[in-house]
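Hey,
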Amino acid sequence: MKMNKKTPKHEYILIITLLFILLSSTSVNAGTSLLWRKTFDSSIIKTGYISNFKIGADKGSEFPLKVVMTEKSISVLDSKGKIARKIPLKDYANTAISDDGTTIATMTGREISISNIDNQIQGIVKIADPQPVVLPQHVSFELSPNGKYLIVISYFSRTIYFHNKKGNMLSKHRFDDLRGAEIRFSKDSHYISIHVPNWGESKSSGYLLFFNDKGEKLWRFDHKGSQARFEDRKSTRLNSSHIPLSRMPSSA
């Protein structure tokens, strides 16, 4: 890549490397190989899943990464890892993209639009909020990893909404205080946990909610401590294979 005077001092580069582990009867050698490198227009906020792939695969095989979201845009990558097109973003903080890179959700005013990666609108979700003006801090939302449904949490209406990607409501659940609620998904998108710190006055405990992908509440667990939080990890995944439903407490 040629550099010029307009090149910013800080580049935003995404690199994919592969760790080769070579086993033999006498030694173990490990090394890394640079497979791909790309500079983007601003800080990288999120990337899609990196799918399974093989080195030296047939020409028909696709590049393992489909989308990269930055502060300024969503880049859609082609089968060779080149940027096929860009979707500009006005406010990345009010935009969500599914882990599989198929679905985008954007909040504008009192609406959340759901679109596919071709930027075609699939559905619209009206935000039910009693306030005359809906501010970003009043509402949070997340797309499931497979992009098939959207969860919206409204702090003022104290309600959790489940919508499919066409915008149709699957279910809604009202609770005491949803401020600071955090959403986690299982990798297969089948289960969701929502932790609520319960910041209300005179509260001495928070609670954990567990749902399935149909928006049905499976159980609720109350815990001591009104401002406890999820462990701070980069991953927001639950391993559903480690959650035996037969051991879950009954719904509260």
